[in-house]
Amino acid sequence: QDQLTESGGGSAQPGGSLRLACVAKYIGRRFCMAWFRQAPGKERQRIATIEHSGATTYADSVKGRFTISIDNTKDTLYLQMNDLRPEDTDMYYCAMERGVSTCLRVGDADFAFYGQGTQVAVSS
């Protein structure tokens, strides 16, 4: 059964906005959650993380434009994407690792759960 389910992808024009959502079956009290993106033939890139303390990190490519947040009452992770650019076109995945104190110790291969992905396309 899917532990994570993404939604909210689609098409946008440059400068536009989209909000992605990732619903988890269960997150828990200690966790690291992240958004990745990947284009065909390219490596997966971690672009944002949030941990149970509320601390966040961002890749330089999205800093100042994207915001990661979480609603613990709904077990839902969000990625607000503003000022979209054509280079943001990718498949976006959410990921979750439970029972950890910080995202700093969670490598990309350490996430136990990934969603199925949602496609984002930015073009004029």
What characteristics describe this protein?
seven-stranded mixed β-sheet; globular; 11 strands; mainly beta; four-stranded antiparallel β-sheet; 124 residues
What layout of secondary structure does this protein have?
Layout: E1 4-7, E2 10-12, E3 18-24, E4 31-38, E5 45-51, E6 56-58, E7 66-71, E8 76-81, E9 90-98, E10 113-114, E11 118-122
Parallel strand pairs: 2-11
Antiparallel strand pairs: 1-3, 3-8, 4-5, 4-9, 5-6, 7-8, 9-10, 9-11
**β-sheet strand percentage:** over 45%
Total number of strands:
11
Poorly predicted residue ranges: none
Q: Structural class of the helices, strands and pairings?
A: mainly beta
Shape: globular
Order of helices and strands: EEEEEEEEEEE
Average residue pLDDT: 94
How many helices? The count is: 0
User: Fraction of residues in helices?
Assistant: under 10%
End-to-end Cα distance, whole Å, is 37 Å
The radius of gyration over CA amounts to 14 Å
Largest sheet: 7 strands, mixed
